[in-house]
Amino acid sequence: MLHVTHALVLVVVGEALTMMRQDGLNKLISVSRFTKCYELDDAVALYHSLRMKPVYIHKAQYEELLSFLDMVKPVSLDEFPSSLMGMATELRKYKILSLKKTEDDEVLQFVRSKIPSPSVNVCYLILSEQCNLACKYCFLGNNDPARRKKFSSEKMTKETAEQALVYFIRQIKLSGNQNPENKSTIIFYGGEPLLNFPVLEHIALRIHELGKVEPCIKNAELSVITNGLLLDEYKLKRLKELGVSIAISIDGCSEEANEQRIDLVGRPSFSKVVAVLDTAKNLDVNIALSVTLTEKTVQDKNKILELISAYNIKGFGFNILMSDETFTLSDEYNNNAADFIIDVFRDLREIGIYEDRIMRKLKSFSNAQVYFSDCAATAGSQIVVTPDGSVGICHGCIAERQYFVSTIYDESFNANIDPLFIKWSQLTPVNKSECLSCEALGICGGGCPVNALHCKGGNTIHSLDERFCVHAKKTLEFLIKDLYRIIRKSD
């Protein structure tokens, strides 16, 4: 056993037990190399990172199992003593015990065969590349004057927006997603999308009109992600009328926590956002929060809880900061952010509120389904349309127009078979050799390729997003131990 921090015990028993048998037998019952062991108070949890069903057994039974495998080296379940037979059968059911040397590779190949092909159903409309803030951590580059110059000053026109909608509908149909039950998503984004509110209004109305004759967007979910500074009573009411959900980005619950969220001349913005939240509350307009976890934010959980309670926030998600050559983070940040997300989740679930990022992993864990991708870009399921009609796969690559391969006027383009979209859809942890030994392989989703690209010199989109390594591992440990707590409580 290897004891590491936060009480996590990783037992890579598969490798050790493989060495026990050198006689070339293909059939040798051993612990799968995908099996990890978590120590609990009086038990252990055995977890296969691709089968994803934890099995809880007493420590004494676990030690007896290891001793038996070591001494007997069984080739059949029939060789197990009666004291271990029931447990061995259960462990075999969840692939924790392998019957032959090739089984792990077969399981991996089966999982890889289930990686979804590109299938577009998400569209980001970049209504304006310009922004009225210059957040110091901006992953798009609005905080860097040199990169800022690369952003177009032109706003998306009504004509471009309409053509983008036609293009999106065509891509959905090419994906075979015409069924209205396969809800498509259209996100108004920037820069700051509210700098171009008239076009937002126009295209939202157009979507509703086209939805009457185009089943694939009949139930489209519309949302705007905004810093909120330009929201007023009219816009709040109008967005509600149009069925556009509103997500306001914020860093925390104080001016200090939001000190990196400044306008173009360096002035703070938090008090203005609070005023908008007050207006929305008075108008009974639901607001979701997109909370960027700064170093200050993760130091004060209670203030976030107070903010959520004060404004009756029902929808929110946490964003872990990205780092690059212009913005660095402390060595402790990734751990602190991961712990913060878990702590807030634990408190808010008591009142029926659930954070989006951890819920995606919880859904994967509870359904025992491998979570291949944590974003629509790495699922090959989104397109991004810029004000000039360029089409790409990731909104984090607007400044350099990297990974933009089409335009809205290209009627021959099919994202579902395009080499770039296929390449991005394969950026899943189960395809990365460095991820195969990780306990969180099945629930991770792989993080953000753009952050992986920029966080270290020489990186590519195939590199690891190390923020998510920490987040995924800590989340999995929490879920396994929390499930054990629930089971014990119900006994």
TrEMBL record:
It holds the Pfam family Radical_SAM. Keywords: Iron, Iron-sulfur, Metal-binding, S-adenosyl-L-methionine. Residues 117-361 form the Radical SAM core domain. InterPro entries: 4Fe4S-binding_SPASM_dom, 4Fe4S_Fe-S-bd, Aldolase_TIM, Elp3/MiaA/NifB-like_rSAM, rSAM, rSAM_FibroRumin, rSAM_sf, Sulphatase_maturase_rSAM. PROSITE patterns: 4FE4S_FER_2, RADICAL_SAM. SUPFAM superfamilies: Radical SAM enzymes. SMART domains: Elp3. This is Uncharacterized protein. Belongs to the radical SAM superfamily. Anaerobic sulfatase-maturating enzyme family. The keyword Iron applies. One of its GO terms (molecular function) is metal ion binding. It comes from Desulfovibrio litoralis DSM 11393. Its cofactor is [4Fe-4S] cluster. It comes from the Bacteria. Residues 426-458 form the 4Fe-4S ferredoxin-type domain.
